[in-house]
């Protein structure tokens, strides 16, 4: 008999005030959050580019030599090294993870820098020692979104568990710009209509639906 494997992608919440359970698709929630944050980043960076001619945009593509070479902290180390090497000349950056057909995670990192910035080559600077890299000039911020659109719910099932899908950073404009970003991204100013409590996190769909149907925790 074949047993269907169910991904633990669901969360069950309960509201005592409303007296009901709801189930939340963890994959959809992650993708929605990614889309909101990238959209907010795009709006603010596009506005900055329109007001500042002395900037350029580049994209780093980071690829693993072997599928098994992936480690969660690699992309974080890369962006940290990029910040340290460029300092104030790095004005903003964002990255999106994509899954190649062979099953390897790879990254597209878009960076907004001051014109005349001497860009570090990851292979030569030890910033990415796990495979291949490429740098290219981009004239359209939409490049990032063409890759973001490929990270769908089906692909998300194939990503390593708890792998980060994206990150964004805006280093210009100070506190006011950061607050505008938070509002645009939907991560501030939320008003709760009711208190919801976790009664099941990272559970299967069948378990979550059972809770909703029975009205009680199994």
Task: Indicate the topology.
Elements: E1 10-15, E2 20-25, H1 26-51, E3 55-64, H2 74-86, E4 90-99, E5 105-114, H3 122-125, E6 131-137, H4 143-148, H5 153-156, E7 166-170, H6 174-185, E8 197-203, H7 205-214
Antiparallel strand pairs: 1-2, 1-8, 3-5, 3-6, 4-5, 4-7
Helix pairs in contact: 1-6
Short description:
The chain is of the alpha+beta class and 218 residues long. The chain has helices at 26-51, 74-86, 122-125, 143-148, 153-156, 174-185, 205-214, and strands at residues 10-15, 20-25, 55-64, 90-99, 105-114, 131-137, 166-170, 197-203.
Report on the structure:
The strands form 2 sheets. Strands 6-3-5-4-7 form a 5-stranded antiparallel β-sheet, with helices on both faces. Strands 2-1-8 form a 3-stranded antiparallel β-sheet. Helix content is 34%, strand content 28%. The longest helix is centred in the N-terminal third of the chain and has 26 residues, at 26-51. It has helices at 26-51, 74-86, 122-125, 143-148, 153-156, 174-185, 205-214; strands at residues 10-15, 20-25, 55-64, 90-99, 105-114, 131-137, 166-170, 197-203. Mean pLDDT is 83; it is low at 1-5. α1 crosses α6. With 218 residues, the protein is of the alpha+beta class. A hairpin with a 4-residue loop joins β1 (10-15) and β2. The chain contains 7 helices and 8 strands. It starts with 9 loop residues before the first strand and ends with a helix.
């Amino acid at each position: 008999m074949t047993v269907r494997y169910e991904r633990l992608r669901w969360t069950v919440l309960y509201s005592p005030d409303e007296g009901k359970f709801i189930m939340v698709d963890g994959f959809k929630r992650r993708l929605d959050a990614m889309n909101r944050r990238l959209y907010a980043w795009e709006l603010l960076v596009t506005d900055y580019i329109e007001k500042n001619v002395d900037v350029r945009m580049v994209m780093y593509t980071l690829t693993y030599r072997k599928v098994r070479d992936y480690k969660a902290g690699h992309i974080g180390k890369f962006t940290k090294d990029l910040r340290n090497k460029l300092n104030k000349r790095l004005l903003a950056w964002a990255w999106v993870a994509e899954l190649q057909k062979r099953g390897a995670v790879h990254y597209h990192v878009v960076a907004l820098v001051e014109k005349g910035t001497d860009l570090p080559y990851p292979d030569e600077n030890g910033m990415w020692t796990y495979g291949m890299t490429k740098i290219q000039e981009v004239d359209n911020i939409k490049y990032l979104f063409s890759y973001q659109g490929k990270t769908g719910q089906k692909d998300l099932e194939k990503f390593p568990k708890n792998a980060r899908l994206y990150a964004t950073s805006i280093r210009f404009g100070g506190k006011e710009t950061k607050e505008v970003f938070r509002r645009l991204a939907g991560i501030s100013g939320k008003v709760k209509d009711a208190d919801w409590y976790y009664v099941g996190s990272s559970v299967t769909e069948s378990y979550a639906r059972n809770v909703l149907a029975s009205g009680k925790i199994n």
